[in-house]
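Colleagues,

For the teaching module next term, I've prepared a clean inverse folding example: a structure given as tokens, and then the sequence designed for it. I'd like students to try predicting residues themselves before seeing the answer, so please don't circulate the second half yet.
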């Protein structure tokens, strides 16, 4: 059997494939980004999810994860997985590789991730030739849930948002400046905290101020991240991730207005990754 994972900063989608029957079992767990999760956290999460299963027949694990761009970070994930899958061949890839395989298949294009965080890469049909410069959740994450939440919070507390929206926000969340700063500077995963406000943004996206905020956020991603990878705008631009999916209409509009060729938009790459690896295995 093959176990495949697609992990972001917020959650991880897992799929267990029985190669003989082509039967698939799905799991959802915590996000396992090595910038925020050490090997012990990975180990505990893996044991929590799979301890009740007969995993002795799992021959290979393909883990695609946010933050898995360096060998040291990949080792954090591998070490955590080995605690339960000690006899299994484990491969850890950057989530951009997963997005490229899932979105572009074997064709040339730009693969983008818009979730809690964001990233993008130019894929030539076989491998990633150029990745976007990623400055992380503090300085980067253009177009992401983290960035949308950050822009909304900024507008609410600096009172650049309309008064009616500010009142509705405070009525909904009752968030003081003191508690906001505690969430951002004293608690873990401030990026997840900021991204949690995208639910409110989605519910209120008909509000002209919020709709403009969404469009500006996506335009920033296209201008700063996508255009350097696709300066002549001749390659299709594909997207995956919760933000891309739940703000699909606004994203499509931003892509077309920026003059790019719109490719696929998917919520999760896990199913396409399963097809990709099952196809590779069938050819062997």
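(Answer key — instructors only)
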């Amino acid at each position: 059997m093959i176990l495949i994972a697609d992990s972001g900063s917020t959650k991880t989608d897992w799929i267990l494939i029985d190669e003989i029957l082509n039967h698939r079992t799905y799991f959802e767990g915590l996000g396992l980004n090595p910038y925020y999760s050490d090997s012990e956290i990975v180990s505990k999460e893996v044991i929590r999810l799979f301890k009740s299963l007969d995993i002795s027949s799992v021959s290979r694990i393909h883990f695609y994860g946010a933050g898995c761009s360096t060998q040291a970070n990949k080792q954090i994930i591998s070490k955590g997985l080995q605690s339960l899958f000690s006899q299994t061949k484990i491969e850890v890839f950057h989530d951009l590789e997963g997005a490229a395989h899932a979105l572009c298949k074997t064709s040339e294009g730009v693969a983008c991730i818009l979730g809690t965080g964001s990233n993008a890469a130019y894929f030539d049909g076989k491998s990633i030739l150029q990745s976007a410069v990623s400055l992380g959740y503090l300085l980067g994450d253009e177009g992401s849930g983290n960035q949308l939440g950050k822009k909304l919070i900024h507008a609410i507390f600096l009172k650049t948002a309309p008064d009616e929206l500010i009142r509705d926000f405070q009525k909904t969340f009752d968030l003081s400046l003191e508690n906001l700063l505690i969430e951002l500077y004293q608690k873990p995963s401030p990026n997840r905290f900021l991204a949690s406000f995208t639910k409110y943004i989605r519910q209120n996206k008909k509000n002209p101020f919020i709709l403009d905020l969404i469009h500006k956020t996506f335009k920033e991603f296209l201008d700063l991240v996508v255009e350097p990878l696709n300066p002549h705008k001749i390659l299709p631009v594909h997207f995956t991730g919760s933000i891309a999916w739940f703000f699909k209409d606004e994203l499509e509009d931003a892509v077309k207005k920026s003059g790019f060729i719109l490719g696929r938009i998917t919520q999760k790459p896990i199913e396409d990754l399963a097809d990709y690896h099952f196809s590779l295995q069938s050819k062997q």
